[in-house]
Design goal:
Elements lengths: L2 H13 L7 H6 L15 H11 L2 H6 L3 E3 L4 H6 L4 E3 L3 H14 L7 E3 L20 H5 L4 H17 L29 H17 L7
Parallel strand pairs: 1-2, 2-3
Helix pairs in contact: 1-3, 8-9
Length: 211
């Protein structure tokens, strides 16, 4: 995927972003109905093209940035960050609203969370934490993979999140890799046919669940 493709995908997602699960975002979002990319009757790709044409190179480059939401709001706004992670609930909603207000073209930001074996930041909400993917792969039970992905998706949507960095389908060959426990091991059959495919099916439900 080229840099241009990635920017286009980011902008298409932003142009078509659904803010239904978080009413606060809908209430606080700055809307300029005169902007051509705000025309909901146009295809998402066309809206993204129009929006990209109106952006400066610095604003376009910002769409390549995915940063930790723990940075200050001033830093995130200054660097035109297109997406962020590691925040949830009212903190996430407030940050997303404020960043959109501060953007010259009021482009919505995207937000995600690293939920590779459960909603890891939801312990205080009763979120489910599963064993690491490497341990789960050792169960040789693909149905458990699908169920784990679906439970994670349900709990993420309940917390206002619809983008997860999961499953990790890297094939691990070197024990020096710092996140080897997040992989499914080095066996490609287990990696995809037995576990990766089913885990993906469960996680994909995050796109369709109604909050």
């Amino acid at each position: 995927m080229t840099r241009r493709d990635f920017i286009g995908l980011n902008l298409a997602a932003a142009a078509a972003v659904s803010i239904e699960p978080w009413p606060i975002l809908a209430q606080s979002a700055v809307k300029d109905s005169s902007a051509p990319w705000m025309d909901a009757s146009l295809p998402s790709a066309e809206r993204a093209r129009l929006l990209a044409a109106a952006m400066t190179p610095t604003e376009q480059a910002g769409q390549l940035l995915n940063y930790d939401g723990g940075k200050s709001i001033d830093w995130l706004a200054e660097h035109q960050v297109g997406s962020f992670l590691n925040r949830q609930g009212s903190t996430l909603a407030g940050l997303a609203c404020e960043l959109r207000k501060r953007h010259r073209l009021h482009v919505p930001v995207l937000f995600a969370l690293d939920c590779i074996h459960g909603h890891g930041l939801a312990e205080d909400l009763g979120g489910t934490i599963f064993p690491s993917p490497l341990a789960m792969a050792a169960s040789f039970d693909p149905e458990q993979a699908r169920r784990m992905g679906r439970v994670t998706a349900d709990e993420m949507v309940a917390a206002g999140l619809r983008w997860t960095y999961a499953p990790n389908i890297d094939v691990a060959h070197d024990l020096r890799f710092g996140r080897i426990e997040e992989t499914l091991g080095e066996d490609t059959f287990i990696w995809w046919e037995r576990w990766g495919r089913q885990s993906s099916k469960g996680c994909k439900a995050i796109q369709f669940i109604r909050a």
